[in-house]
From TrEMBL:
One GO molecular-function entry: double-stranded DNA binding
Protein name (database record): Non-homologous end joining protein Ku
Function: With LigD forms a non-homologous end joining (NHEJ) DNA repair enzyme, which repairs dsDNA breaks with reduced fidelity. Binds linear dsDNA with 5'- and 3'- overhangs but not closed circular dsDNA nor ssDNA. Recruits and stimulates the ligase activity of LigD.
Source species, domain of life: Bacteria
Gene expressing this chain: ku
Region annotated Disordered, chain positions: 228-272
Basic residues bias: start-end ranges: 258-272
Keyword Flavoprotein: no
CDD domains assigned: KU_like (cd00789)
Entry keyword set: DNA damage, DNA recombination, DNA repair, DNA-binding
Xref: SMART domains: Ku78
Subunit structure: Homodimer. Interacts with LigD.
């Protein structure tokens, strides 16, 4: 597994040499853009809007646009010095909290943490400590010149680190348009909806869920590679429009109801 970062975890005076590995991968199918006429891949050039000329990498500087068409230019040396000042290779655990206290909206990306050769015992100690306490560690880490807020927790038999957003990166829910404030749902509708939730409640089994679009797209690609005809999958046909909320709930309930078990015939009837 590829190492994306190497450093240490610290909590109190305990220091654990660790490596960071991406815990998830993007399985999206990447499609290239081609010229329709000759099927040659399209390339992109960096062009200056003012000069209308192609610009080389060495002629490009970075800047912050603080107002429309007004920029503060930042030299590469300045950015490099700032990066070095904040390049601490330590996951510093600041606090310990309950996982349930952090809303999932804060979570960003997950990494596996593996111990370096000399850190196995301290790694195991932290893992057991988190398991026994039922807590997670809130930490800070710098990855690719960006200081990240993160949490350290136990996943199966390993430690994982999940980067999380800072509070000012989460937008205010009050800015979301058209959220209804008045309670317009009747008690009968709510009761039926709760019955539907109860019927659909099950244990979470992640292997049960698949990316149907990606599977269908790969099937289409493979079929076109071998010049086969592709037909749409009828089982994914969109449902009929149901405008009445109560009718939709009742239809959903009827769909999820398990068939009643057939009664066994009595012995007397069987022997008749």
């Amino acid at each position: 597994m590829h190492t994306v970062w190497k450093g240490s975890i610290s909590f109190g005076l305990v220091n654990i040499p660790v490596k960071l590995h991406a815990a998830t991968e993007n399985k999206d199918i990447k499609l290239r853009q081609l010229h329709k006429t000759c099927h040659t891949p399209i390339s992109y050039k960096k062009v200056c809007e003012g000069c209308q000329k192609e610009v080389k990498d060495e002629d490009i500087v970075k800047a912050y646009e603080y107002a429309k068409n007004k920029f503060v230019v930042l030299d590469r040396e300045e950015l490099e010095n700032l990066r070095k000042e904040n390049q601490d290779k330590t996951v510093e655990i600041i606090d310990f909290v309950q996982l349930t206290e952090i809303d999932p909206i804060y979570f960003e990306r997950t990494y596996f943490l593996s111990p370096d050769a000399t850190g196995a015992k301290a790694y195991t100690l932290l893992r057991h400590t988190l398991e026994q306490s039922g807590k997670i560690g809130v930490a800070k880490i710098t990855i690719r010149s960006k200081e990240q807020l993160a949490i350290v927790r136990v996943y199966q038999h390993a430690l994982v680190m999940e980067t999380i957003h800072y509070p000012d990166e989460v937008r205010n829910v009050r800015d979301v348009p058209n959220i209804p404030e008045e309670d317009t749902v009747g008690p009968k509708e709510l009761k039926t909806a709760l019955m539907l939730v109860d019927q659909l409640t099950t244990a979470f089994k992640p292997e049960k869920y698949t990316d149907d679009y990606r599977t269908a797209l790969m099937a289409l690609i493979e079929a076109k590679k071998s010049n086969r005809t592709v037909t749409p999958n009828e089982k994914h046909a969109p449902p009929d429009n149901v405008t009445d909320l109560m009718s939709a709930l009742q239809a959903s309930l009827d769909k999820t109801k398990k068939p009643a078990p057939r009664k066994r015939a009595s012995k007397a009837k069987k022997n008749a």
